[in-house]
Amino acid sequence: MTFLTDWTFYYWAFWLAWAPFTGIFIARISKGRTLRQLLLGVLIIPSLGTFFWFSVFGTSAFELIESWGSYNNEFGNVFSSIFVFFGNYPIATLLNFTTIFLLISFLVTSVDSAVFVLSMFTDHGKKDPSKKHRLIWAVFILMATISLLLLGNAKPDIDVLTAVQKLLIITSLPFALFMVYMAVAFVWELMNRTEKLT
Fold first, then answer.
1. What is the mean pLDDT of the chain?
2. CA 93 distance to own-chain centroid
3. 135, 123 contact by CB (below 8 A)
């Protein structure tokens, strides 16, 4: 299925694009934590949660398709599939509202983190960037979002979300190469610090 390929690439690209913001933000709020606590709270527990989510909901979606008897691309749109999925279960309205609330809260906290980290970058690496820088980045992100929405309404024959998705995949490739370098540098630094302690 092309969905599996497209979604996998998009999911990788999404995390690669957000990694610089998320990594710096997590590093800042994790000051004073041990490496064990950081790995457990940032990598292991979220990965287990994601594994649980995909296992349970993925299996349930396949069971739904089998119960339908035929598949007419009901889950073809990655942006609305969750609502189609919940529509086949009790209290679908409550689940849909909960999903929208969680999506909004995720978006707000993610954009807030991005604004904060971008402000740090542009304010000479200050740990507490000025409100001016935060305002500039917030307005810039807002204008970019409004532009995409207006473009989508002005050109209904163009799938803007899919275009942005493909753009994200392409532009995140340099981060993938850079992350290999970062991983090697991180391991090298750990080895050096371990040698100094022994």
1. 83
2. 25
3. no
